[in-house]
Amino acid sequence: MQDRQTNIFDFEKYEVKHSSFKNSLLELNKIIDWASFLPILNEAFKKEKKSTGGRKPYDRILMLKILILQSQYNLSDDQTEYQIYDRRSFREFLGLSIGDEIPDAKTIWLFKDKLAKKGTVEKLFKHFGEQLNGNGYRAQKGQIIDASIIPVPKQRNSREENAQIKEGEIPEAWKEQPNKLEQKDTDARWTKKNDISYYGYKNHVDIDVKHKLIREYEVTDAAVHDSQVVDAIIDPHNTNADVYADSAYRSVAQEEKFAADGYRSKVHHKGTKSKPLSEFKQEVNHHRSKVRAKVEHIFGNQMMMMGSKLMRCIGMSRAKACIGLRNLVYNMHRFVFLTKLKVTSA
């Protein structure tokens, strides 16, 4: 490639591209009320004794925003530390200057682990849900329930080890090797979907039809059937009684329970080889699919933003925190979009 002198137009072109890349982060900074999360974060650390020496702890809102970045881009702790150093847009989002000290990978891991053990991410998600309601985005026009498999790195275990894990036991050899045990996920499980095997967890969500915001979520291992989690994620505050779901959620017992609880079932009809669906029920399913597609858009958005569904967290408590952060990040970006839409249409 022929060398040429850089001119003012090159810098202008760079600034335009850089601005578009960092735009979503700047919008998060402007629209999200970050300070409102501080009491919840402080609650997770309130019993810790203050050290008279050593380095002063990092600002907790700063640490939360680092976890938001990490979740949004699906980064490891080491990658997160590096990218904060490397990306100007990350430092601007965090309010850090070139000379400011940046939390290292270990500090990021410890902060995230504390939130996981205290169940703090669930509280942060609930708190932001209250903010959404307060800003006029209450759950309306019915709800959609669905689940997405979140794979984790496959474990290279023997059949005997897998059998013990399935029974809730820890293999003896692992107990004698603490470092090995730390790298083993004994809470994740195998499942099959469309004849493909997956190892990991499930993100069960409930969204409202009008705003496409995640209202409730539950994290389980991947082997738990979708229909077993309905009671945990159904949103009683939606202004409409319609409940949309695919045929995996359909059963006589569930239909009766929906009716008893005051919900109108819009669950897909299920056919069999011996009793295929009538044309009428196929048409009903077709119309319901158009509504239910909204939840698939959410799962697709999460995967597109993060580049992969693969999750690096090990163990149920950390999986709940990591998946909860993914759902919180989605809602934050959706809130920004809805806010901009309201301003544009006003």
From TrEMBL:
Molecular function in Gene Ontology: DNA binding; transposase activity
Residue span(s) of domain Transposase InsH N-terminal: 22-113
Domain Transposase IS4-like: 141-332
The keyword DNA-binding appears for this protein: yes
The entry's keywords: DNA recombination, DNA-binding, Transposition
InterPro entries the record matches: Transpos_IS5, Transposase_11, Transposase_InsH_N
GO biological process, one term: DNA transposition
PANTHER family found in the cross-reference section: TRANSPOSASE INSH FOR INSERTION SEQUENCE ELEMENT IS5A-RELATED
Reported function: Involved in the transposition of the insertion sequence IS5.
Family: Belongs to the transposase 11 family.
Protein name: IS5 family transposase
